[in-house]
């Protein structure tokens, strides 16, 4: 079973083909359903490492594999899904109140995240139990 589209969905970016190579671009509010307020990326992640393990109260994100691949495990408090990111033109939109975990990073993988807000530690659910309680009260 997959998580409803409003919470998680694939984002496809445009690609311009050229004999010198391909070019992909992203515009906040156009290709991404929010204005981009922060960009960060993960790299040199050991192949056996796990990242994520949290949800956000308000933050929205789109996650891309710019190089290599990794798995996103997604949980909206009711349904769990898995997505493999490996194409730099395809990102995964993750709405607020969605638990995410990342693992199975390939050698040399680079993960880029576009975020709707600057970093704010108070926006995180780092406890899965607290996340589940929030999903029950917010989506009842």
Automatic annotation (TrEMBL):
Recorded coiled-coil stretches: none
Pfam families: FdtA
InterPro entries, A to Z: QdtA_cupin_dom, RmlC-like_jellyroll, RmlC_Cupin_sf
The Sugar 3,4-ketoisomerase QdtA cupin domain, residue ranges: 11-135
Protein name, as recorded: FdtA/QdtA family cupin domain-containing protein
Species of the source: Sedimentimonas flavescens
């Amino acid at each position: 079973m997959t998580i409803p589209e409003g919470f998680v969905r694939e984002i496809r970016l445009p690609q311009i083909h050229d004999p010198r190579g391909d070019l992909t671009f992203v515009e906040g509010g156009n290709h991404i359903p929010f204005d981009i307020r922060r960009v960060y990326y993960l790299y040199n992640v050991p192949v056996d490492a796990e990242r994520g393990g949290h949800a956000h109260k308000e933050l929205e994100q789109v996650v891309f594999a710019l190089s290599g691949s990794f798995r996103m495990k997604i949980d909206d408090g009711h349904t769990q899904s898995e997505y493999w990111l490996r194409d730099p033109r395809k990102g995964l939109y993750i709405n607020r109140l969605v638990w995410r975990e990342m693992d199975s990073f390939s050698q040399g993988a680079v993960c880029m995240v576009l975020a709707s807000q600057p970093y704010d530690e108070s926006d995180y659910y780092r406890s899965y139990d607290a996340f589940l309680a929030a999903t029950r009260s917010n989506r009842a």
